[in-house]
Amino acid sequence: MTKKRLILAPVVALAVTAAIALSGCAANTATTPAADAKPLDGGTIVYGHQQEPACVFGGWIEQAYLSYNVLDSLVSLDEDHQVVPWLAEKWAVSDDGLQWTFDLKPDVKFTDGSDLTAEVVAYNFDYWVNGGGNSTALAWLGGYYQGAEAVDDLTVQVDLAKPYPRLADNLTQGYFGIQSQKALTERTQEENCAAPIGTGAFIVDHWDRGQEIVLKRNDGYTSWPANAEHTGPALVDEVEWKFIADATTRVAALKSGELDAVYDVPAVQWKPTGDAGFTLEKYVTPGRPQVLTFNTAQGPFTDESVRQAFAYAVDRKEIVESIGRGVIPYEGNGGVSQTTPGYSQKAADWYTQDLDKAADLLDAAGWTETDSDGYRTKDGETLEVTLPYFTGSIITADGVSILQGVQEQAKKSGFKVDLIPVPQAEAFSGAYSKPDERDIYPGYWTAVTSGILQINWGAGSDGNPNNWNASFTDYPELQALILQANSEPDVDKQNALYEQAQEYIAEHALAIGVYDRLSTLAVSPKLKGVWQEHAQGGPTFYDAYFVQ
Question: Domain Solute-binding protein family: where (predicted)?
Fold first, then answer.
């Protein structure tokens, strides 16, 4: 059965694959509780997730998923994409847009016993932008944030260099969880990495690296967000957040009854899992979808005609619909996903497969000859491009199949695409990050606004390049549109500017969309109240409970 409400929770998995294999004879159909089944007090949720991060708090979405359950933020995002109170009861913006004031809830304590104060919040802002283990927070605040100070015990003032009307929206992301100043200043970096101290519904009890993180209930919790479904402490005693990379193993463990929820259900297993009685949820994350960004600094894609030819050569929609089986949405927009405010459908529809156009564009670009393998050549050089992709949760198994489909179709127009799988450890160490190492970059970046365009396409600063710009090239006209949009207070005008920016990306074929990034979840019918936070689709277990 599939519910319309968007809900997410990371997948629970068994540590020992053999144990799951032995349970294969168990019933694969969920036992559904009676409609009037009563809620149970307490209990332990066993949840399996595909990806283990290095720290609980940080700048990666896998960290945001975890920290959202441990660290409260100033504000939350509801189902209607409206910013609602969390640690901040209310907030205001000055007429010139350069000063934000947040009024905090009284009598909130961190789990180390220290008080939530305006001074602590101001410290967190400075911590984020000064190397506090969170490059994503810096990416969102950089160029805007000037400083923060306590006006009184419960009022914090944030000063900006230029207007940033979507600041509160961006603060709903899990990268902006508030930590105890006492913990940040008195504990070691390793301690704060493994078990950050927040005011949240759960506390990190322990972390068995490579196996699981156990979260226990914060019995003194008083600071739930306005969009929560109950008040008071969490309803369950603890969450065993297990890590297992293989999606098939996770789903098998759910069906055997050893897990209560699993994350990232493969498209091929989606319908059978729902038919077996498990609740299915999927969340299309806003921000940059899974796109192919072309290296326009060097190589064949410096020629706009070649980029456009590639866009016309591949029927991305057909590939995604075939492999995605109606679960993974096709996304033609190379800038932002369809759930992002300010989305341009015009940009999404810019290119559909047209092999004749692709051929004409390659001819015009001088790639007129064909070798014995069918690849285009020019002056004896093969039209060969490198496409490295990062494995694991960045490009999942379904994503790899989609990239293989792109490779196959591009070959028909004469492109030789070299797909190179890159382990995450190598990716995070900088592999294939330089202009001479790749021609196409596949990747996503979750966000709540089209302001993600500034991170992905903004110019460098202080003589340094923007390392998040996968094209390796500055486009002043595009960057001016994005900056203007970021500071525009009128929502309709802002969205129109963001749409123009996306259409610039499409017109010049700087990047093309392929599919929207999903967070999917399958949940036992015995577990209720698991929901996705609406900024990034992360799982929240605060409202979760078991029924008989």
Answer: 82-450
